[in-house]
TrEMBL record:
This is DUF72 domain-containing protein. InterPro entries: DUF72 (IPR002763), UPF0759_sf (IPR036520). It comes from the Bacteria. Coiled coil: none annotated. It holds the Pfam family DUF72. The lineage of its organism: Bacteria, Bacillati, Bacillota, Bacilli, Lactobacillales. It comes from Lacticaseibacillus hegangensis.
Length: 275
């Protein structure tokens, strides 16, 4: 099964029924979403309840771990214990309905291969022994020839979900696309685009330019073959389009769905356009 979705909920004008797109809008077209607001703070019970109310019961969520939990602010996730506990508690209703696909730990670029960081990964699994945990490495060292097999073996040992990344390949050490599954239930692909210049750009507009890219049909077809390959190793593959610097994610994701001949049941109701 291949499920396709987006991140940045409010930033898809082609889907918006109001001034900005909502979860309800995304659920009319896609069966899954990645929530990135949780990277900044643990959501309240009321917020999680509101999320669930906006979507069909079959709709799934990939929820980002907070910055502290994913080693952006502290060296050891044990120091972020309160946030681990708070997020786990907040996600209980989502887990109870079977709508929590994964908690995504997007690790920082400086999180390289070391004995200390391996202990961090073990600690994450210790703190979340039963939740589906996905890892996205942003340091290419984990995939160097001398470490790649050990990295994947460790993830399999800990039953962690491998995030397969497509991003611009720059001299600064971009993470390569490693099409390997480490979890029999789920693999995740996160597609950031291939804008090399934008990926390296600084300045005030770096966030939007970083993911300013529209995949070609040929590129989508190649990525689709990778998704199909992963689907032979995991029961479900979630493909998240994050190439939304200039609002290309939703059109590209819909094109991807058509190219792969995917059809989703139980989507949210379409809003009527009366004018």
């Amino acid at each position: 099964m291949i499920n396709v979705g987006l991140t940045a909920v409010a930033d898809h004008p082609d889907l918006a029924s109001g001034r900005t797109s909502s979860l309800a809008d995304l659920a009319t077209t896609f069966p899954v979403v990645e929530l990135d607001t949780t990277y900044y703070h643990v959501p309240s019970d009321q917020v999680v309840s509101h999320w669930l109310q906006q979507v069909p019961s079959s709709f799934q969520f990939v929820v980002k771990a907070t910055a502290a939990m994913s080693a952006h602010k502290v060296e050891d996730p044990h120091d972020a214990g309160a946030e681990f506990t708070g997020l786990k508690r907040a996600l209980v209703p989502m887990q109870a309905t079977g709508q929590l696909a994964a908690v995504l730990f997007q690790l920082p670029p400086y999180f390289g291969v070391s004995a200390t960081n391996i202990r961090v990964l073990n600690r994450i699994r210790t703190l979340y022994p039963e939740l589906p945990v996905a890892l996205e490495f942003r340091n290419a060292g984990w995939y160097l020839p001398e470490y790649r097999d050990q990295t994947l073996a460790l993830m399999r040992e800990l039953n962690l979900i491998h995030v397969v990344v497509d991003e611009p390949q720059t001299p600064a050490g971009s993470v390569p696309l490693v099409a390997a599954s480490t979890n029999s239930e789920l693999s995740i692909m996160r597609l950031h685009g291939r804008n090399v210049a934008g990926w390296q750009r600084g300045g005030a507009k770096w966030r939007s330019e970083r993911t300013n890219y529209r995949y070609t049909q040929e590129e989508l077809q190649a990525l689709g073959q990778i998704a199909k390959q992963l689907a032979k190793q995991s029961k479900q593959v979630i493909v998240i389009f994050n190439n939304n610097g200039h609002h290309d994610a939703s059109p590209n994701a819909q094109q991807f769905i058509k190219l792969l001949g995917l059809h989703y049941q139980d989507l949210g109701p379409q809003q009527l356009d009366l004018f």
